[in-house]
Design brief:
Elements lengths: L1 H10 L1 H40 L4 E4 L9 H8 L4 E8 L17 E6 L9 H4 L1 E4 L6 E5 H7 L6 E4 L7 E9 L5 E6 H7 L8 E6 L5 H11 L4 E3 L2 H42 L1 H9 L4 H41 L11 H18 L1 H9 L2 H5 L11 H22 L5 H17 L1 H19 L4 H10 L1 H39 L4 E4 L11 H8 L4 E7 L2 E5 L14 E4 L2 E10 L2 H7 L3 E5 L3 H5 L2 E5 H7 L6 E6 L12 E11 L10 E4 L1 H6 L6 E8 L5 H11 L9 E4 H44 L1 H9 L4 H37 L10 H26 L3 H6 L4
Parallel strand pairs: 3-8, 5-7, 15-20, 17-19
Antiparallel strand pairs: 1-9, 1-10, 2-3, 2-9, 4-7, 5-8, 6-7, 11-21, 11-22, 12-21, 13-15, 13-18, 14-15, 16-19, 17-20, 18-19
Length: 860
Amino acid sequence: MRQLVWRFFYGYKKRTGFAILGVALAMIILVISQILLATLEQASELGIKQKYGNYDLMVGYQKTKQFLSESDIAKIKRIPQVKEIAPFYYPYIDENPIFFDGSPIPFIYIGVNNNPLAKEMDLIKRIKQGQLPRAGEVVLSLPYMKKKGLRIGDSVKIPFASQKKKRLTISGILHVTDVNIALFDLAWLQETTAKQGRITMMLVQLTDLKSKAAVIEQIRNQFPRIHIDKRDLIDKERENLGGLKPVVYGLNVTILIGSALLMITILQMSLHERKKELATIRLLGGKKNQLFRLVIHEAILVSTSGSLLGLGGGVGLSFLLQQSLMKWMALPIVPIVIPWTLILLSLMGGILFITLASLIPAYRSSQVPPMVAFRQAAPQSQKQKPVIKWVSLLCIISSVTLTIWNLMRTPSQTIYLVSGLLFTIGVFLAVSWILPLLVRGISWVFQLVQSSDRILSSRNTLRQLHRSTQLASVLMLAIIIGNVGLSILYLLKDEQEKQLSEIYPMEYILDANTSHSEAGFSEQIYDSIAKLPHMKAFPLYNRGHFSTQNLDIKKIKKEKLSLFPENGSYQTLVSLIGSDLETIYKQLPFRIISGQINSSALKQNGVVITKTFSELTGYKLGDPIALKEDTQLKWGDGPPKRITLKIVGIIDPYPFAPKDDLLLITHTDITKKIFGISTIDKIYFDVTKSSAKKEIEKQINQKLKDPSLSKAILTSRTEEFGKFIEQYKQRLWLLGAAVSLIALFSLLGLLNNTASSLQERRAEFAVLRALGGKRRQVLRLILWEGILVTTAGGFLGMIVSIFLGAHLIAALDKTLWDFPITGSLYCLAFSPIIGLIANFIPAFSTVNGKISRNLTTDAE
């Protein structure tokens, strides 16, 4: 048996080579994707650590009277997932500012420990000269050092709030330009200010990023009013790479499927050519299971050889592609990472999958009667069983019926998904009997244009079509993945543009990034930004959170509201915000559905609601709305306040909030005087002069270096959309690479199939030549065979991709008609080219062969 396997393996070198090449290409992609993903992940983490520092949370307070004691720090350290902490102390963070030497800008005093984690803080990284201070030393900011002509090692007197000046030695220079900062040794500063053991904030490094949410919850349970910077911006950057993984893994699976289909086709052709040899083995006493094992062993040998070749090629190409990929994704260059365990498991899984796929031709070959095979009759076992035909018809009819039924009722996304998958499965099962129908139909269309040799091409194609069924399926797979994937990517791109236009009604957002218990920007900070040249800015004040007190349960949409029982009825939570609607309307016009938005009406306990708010809650123009402050989320001390406001206007939408937000808008006088809400959550602004944008960004970023504004984040619509476009391009390239590879599988299979078919039919074409047929006529006949097969496969792929794509998009809460069909038409136009290329080389070889030799030599 072993010798026979090796004989078959080496006896058909071209066929075996094509099979190994197909498997190797699939494995190369699989190996490259694993290596580059692991390397990208390491590079991404390194880039994040270099850019943002190697810590995961910033925990603490922003008021002098609030602090963490030594026992509090010990509690946080005892949390199992906490790896390390770095404490900082701000003695005068919000009171008693220190001015000295006539400087108009107060000094910010910070106590810090000289440990590795503390050096990860952006502020500490700005010590470009010298070192962190020890007891009796200080690090001062560059502007003050320059102004006083000081150097490292000089002595300087530093004032403190309750004591005389202390003489300290300068140990380093802090490179900040717009703020005065003095860094001290933590223990020394605590002792000097008589606040031993007090910590204002700390950096926290975790053992595992997956535990971040659990750690935050534990800290909040112990310290309810503590501020926690979750560093969401870093997590957002990690999401870019995390989002690539499912895309890459999904494409790897489809590539393996394409490789398996190619393997099935090549094995079927190989077995068809060896019918006499296999029949001889049966006639000499060979059993069915021996032939079955023979084919399986050959498949294992081919898949293992291809996998080893793919492993070597994948590792080599990874080294070649690494630097280009890192530069493209703007990541630091790191040593390549080879996850051997994952790669070997993936290769073993690929070999197993391809071997399992070879069970189909192995079983069929073992079931062919030896005399039938010996006479080279068409193998009866290749005919599709009637049950498969009826199952495919049932799937297609059920899918169409489900879709029509779903359109006639309130659409269900799940039914759309099931219907699309049913149709796809049904068509793939029906390829063997649908493909001949399509070939006849396409041939008939072509005969209307030129009928001289189309009839013969059609008949030849139909006679050899059983060889090409799997290859047509591979081409269909490429078209479906490419078209559906591309259409979904386009849809996501459009959705992202819409979301960004809603999130960013103006070009920039300066977000205070504070929790409810913390103050946002002061009005003074807003004024300083609004007064910058070429600036058009609007403040978004912090919200008050309330429960309704007079909600009419009969008028609401219960399924879309979160209700809770109160005072014998059901109420819901809403938000109240102070805003200058008249000014906003002039710059960012919105639709006034009814009523008015003028300030005089709002100051008299008036309120404006959105159209969505009205539809969900049932409140109309002129209705009173009674509110009670939420106990947990109220501003200030004392019992929850109550107020009744009159609805004076309905708008659609409010530019600075999502459409489905349950938001009430009143005048800022009411929110300030009654509820004490005077701080700003976000500042939206545009820069009216394009050439001034960079300078404005620079000035605002300088303001954000103030430690009291360390949490604030400046983002822009253009920058955010640019990041998304980069992700979009990455996924587009991955999709294109996968589709191209699957199309290449189809091309290789067709090339192999055509070469085998023409080898068997050399005598037929020689007779045509002997009867006066010209070379170009024979060439045209052969080329038309490839064009017919791939056009039929492309048309079927187009139909499935449109149906499946439309249903997937409908399952994403869109409509069936949102699916673009342009990509499908491009795929259909490209399909004949694959057939033309695949048939050209073997066709050219056939028409240039000698007639006499082809007439006297039987097909091998």
